[in-house]
What we know:
By secondary structure, the protein is an alpha+beta fold. It has 3 domains: 7-117 and 459-483, Alpha-Beta Plaits (2-Layer Sandwich), CATH 3.30.70; 155-249, Chitinase A, domain 3; 268-323 and 350-445, Trigger factor, domain 2 (Orthogonal Bundle), CATH 1.10.3120. It has helices at 26-42, 56-86, 139-152, 201-207, 255-260, 268-302, 309-323, 332-335, 351-373, 380-391, 397-405, 408-417, 428-445, 478-483, and strands spanning 7-12, 17-24, 91-99, 108-116, 155-158, 168-177, 180-193, 215-221, 235-249, 376-377, 420-421. Strands 5, 6, 7, 8 and 9 form a 5-stranded antiparallel beta sheet that branches. A hairpin with a 4-residue loop joins strand 1 (7-12) and strand 2. The protein is elongated, with a radius of gyration of 33 Å. It starts with 6 loop residues before the first strand and ends with a helix.
Amino acid sequence: MNLDGANYKVEDGEGLRRTLHVQIPATAMQEEFLARLGALRRRTRIRGFRPGKAPIKLIKQRYGQEVWDELTREAIERSFREGAQQQELRVVGSGEVKARKAREGSDLEYRAAFDVLPDIEFNGLDGLIYEEPEVEIQSRDVDRTIDRLRRREAEWKDVERPARKGDRMVVNLKVSRRRQMLEAAELKEATLMLGETRLMPQLEERLMRLAASQKKKFRLKMPPDYPNESLRGKRVLYEVEVLGLSEPQLPDMDEAFVKKLGVESGSVEDLRANVRASMERELKSLSESHKRQSLFDQLLKANEGPAPQSLVDQDVERMLASMRPPPAADSEDAENGQAPEEQDGQPEETPEMRAMAERRVRLQLLVAELAAREKISPDDQVLRQQLQALAAGAPDPEAALAELAGNRDLVGNLRAGIPAIRKNALMKRQRSLLSVLFLAGVSAAGQPPPSPMDGFMRLPRGRERRGGGFHAPPPAKRWTERHA
């Protein structure tokens, strides 16, 4: 199809929003329309006529509308892409296309609204800094971890004495203010691990004084940082009934216990070595996470700018989708093959969610641009090192490595984010910081960085999207499938 005569005009909208007005001459549409009818005629069999010899008027009468609709859809898609390239528009996210009803012999006119990628001028790259914390796993840290493992395998013995730290307490609990029950403030047979469950210090102190089968009422003043702002500094009434109280009977540190934890030798020293190695890996992971967060904050602070709202909307929708409960498999709609009705209590967007989405999108765009400028690309050797690090803590690292290597989603995510910065003029330390940024930028956004026109006008053939998004006539399928 010849689009040389197409006319393109760009209109700036709010922020990164743009509108592309397109006009395709009637002569170009008519020329392509007749060419497609002629091609269809040559491969169509109609009773009473030799193959390919049916009158063009009959072909047009039977299939003309479908051919025209297919042509209109393809003309919109192709002209949009050519117009965006001609006008040097870096289209991103989903868009909305509104077209006038195109008729044979008239120009095809439509307008497409979409977001564009922002122009990024990096600031603060020379000032990216991060000081590695000097943290070392001590013997007492290993001891505490092993104690937690023992508590996990402990047997619990009922006691009649007052509660103390380390006990397990089962309670019924009510919280009220001025004889009004507070929202979500009643617990039935709740298990509290004293000294471990996150409780207000003053509440835990009161619980420590109680014994099994004891009931108690007391008032506490809510701390100034209490999550519910309306209760900060206010006094509320607690009603507690202790249903049970027990203390742990820790297992002996013998060979049987050590083997139960997966150490085949049964040696306590081997257990301590394994625990230390595991803690060191976790410490390294936490350190890398802290490093990434610090660099993210520095990069975002030094490079303020808008985020394409279509990408932000998509990110918010992904968050909401992850929070929605799956439809019941035995529901009536599912049995009838219908889409389930919207359930009550669906998650709603919050300002915090949108702010989080905007941050992720901005970071994603910054990291993608940075990767392109600094020629950061994947590297198979680094990929293998990442997989080996993940498999190192398994009882059989080689088997775990093989299993991880067969996980396509995991390998895809790692390959998308593993940096291998080629030699350039940057200092070695700065290259390392950029590597961390790129590696984490993909995972922070949950998907690879966006590319121009990614997702724009993605519409399954034969379907319309109304109320925003692509809106064009359905394509001709019947004649292409039947007569191709």
